Amino acid sequence: MIEVKKLVKRFGLKTILRGLDFEVQPGEFVALLGPNGAGKTTFLRILASLSRPSLGTVKVAGYSLPHESAKVRARLGVVSHLPLLYPDLTAEENLQFYARMYGLVNHASRITEVLSMVGLEARRKDLVRTFSRGMQQRLAIGRAIIHDPDVVLFDEPYTGLDQDASEMLDEVLRSVAAKGRTVVMTSHDLARAEDLATRFDILSRGVIAASATRDDFRNTNLLDFYRKAIVN
Amino acid sequence: MNHPAPSLLKATFAIVRKDLAAEFRSRELLSAMLVFSMLVILIFNFALELDVKVRQSVTAGVLWTTFAFAGTLGLNRSMAVEKDRGCMDGLLLAPVDRSAIFFGKAISNLAFMLIVEAIVIPLYAMLYNEVRIFQVEFLGVLLLGSIGYIAVGTLLSAMSVQTRTRDVLLPILLFPVAVPVLLASVKASGGIIAGADFAEILTPLNLLIVYDIIFIAVAFMVFDFVVEE
Q: Is the CB of B27 inside 8 Å of chain A's CB atoms?
């Protein structure tokens, strides 16, 4: 579903990604972990076609970037730490706007379905500016999946959420992944990543330093694996 | 799962609809532009203490100065709303030709500027006792000038909004580039107020039309590169 080979990203003289290779099979839930400045957000922005690779090849859902970016964007949903929502529109109006931008016809039933999935159906007519951070983040997930994408990218979705909001977000993330979607999530929260993901990739100094599946953690835990990968 | 991408036109009008709905609810941008425009008109009125004859000669200049500065306020705010909450990324993630974002934002900005003009023109007529600004030809020039100013302003605000000094940078970038459209607008509208022959205002009018076409075409071609990382 995602195929990245020898990806390099430079901003001026600074090289962020240094020949990164990455592959994700359909239906996998990959947690992309790493310290601050490792290049996680830059990498996700390239996968989302928001940033151009300097070198290397990137394929998402069979389409190559940046040449077929519109086709990739049609099959992709993105949730970042910013909600990408308009505070002066209601929850329903925000989803209506994004549904139109994705070419959905007769989107009323889909909006109801999505609002119900993220637990905001009762607040559909309320302005987003009146929502708590956790509610905005749940609506942001609704926005990202309104067009029923094959791949969903989460960039630090738990940033700024309290314990209750994080637990509610866990449930929403599980239901997103349960539909057989391919998910890539960056996070600093190792416990949550361990709970949700099926594979764990450690990004360090612009490359994937280590990769493991859930089955690999019989005699160790994710924190030890992470520390070892970062040190090496 | 795989929906056909919306056409350029549909995506453009989805953005316009969203911008108008958000603005008519918050009225942040329109009220700032309106209050600013009214203050400028009032300040000119008291500062210049114009006699009837001089009023006729400065009307076009005063009005275009007011609209240019008020327009800059609106352009800055309109793009900042998208950038500050990451909504620009939301727009860029849609599977549409990215020039739809330019056209959508430009049409919304033009709508806001025309609303401000529609309120300021009668106010100006009242304060300055100048009714010739209601001529259809004058309003036509106002429309052409506003289209050119907003076209180049929307493109430049998409660039400046990505910088830390966006509030200062937009006017610095915009005014030098918009000089031809502002000069042609002042000349053409001044000529209409003075009752000049059509032949006399033909040159600035042509310049306005050419400027509008060139900047809309340039924005259509380069907008993708402007918003790209």
A: no
Sorted by sequence, the CB contacts under 8 Å of residue B189 that are 6+ apart come out as: B59, B60, B63, B64, B133, B138, B141, B142, B145
Q: How far apart are CA A104 and CA B1, in angstroms?
A: 10
Strands of the sheet with A55-60, listed across from one edge: A14-24, A2-11, A55-60, A63-65
Of B92, B95, B228, which is closest to A102 when you measure between CB atoms? Answer: B95
Domain ranges of chain A: 1-75+151-158+182-232
Nearest CA in chain A to B15: A97
Amino acid identity, position A46: I
When CB atoms are compared, the residue of A73, A100, A103 closest to B93 is A73
Q: Does B17 touch chain A (CB under 8 A)?
A: yes
Give the residue extent of every domain in chain B.
8-227
Give me the residue from B4, B17, B86 closest to A84, CB to CB: B86
pLDDT in tens, A10-32: 998 899 999 999 999 998 999 99
Range A1-75+151-158+182-232 has CATH code 3.40.50.300: yes
Q: What ipTM does the predicted assembly reach?
A: 0.90
CB within 8 Å: A74 and B228: no
What's the pLDDT tens digit per position in B191-227?
998 888 888 899 999 999 999 999 999 999 999 888 8
Write phi, then psi, for A82 (nearest 5 degrees): -90, 140
Rg, C-alpha atoms of chain B: 18
Give the integer Cα–Cα distance in Å for A60 and A152. 11
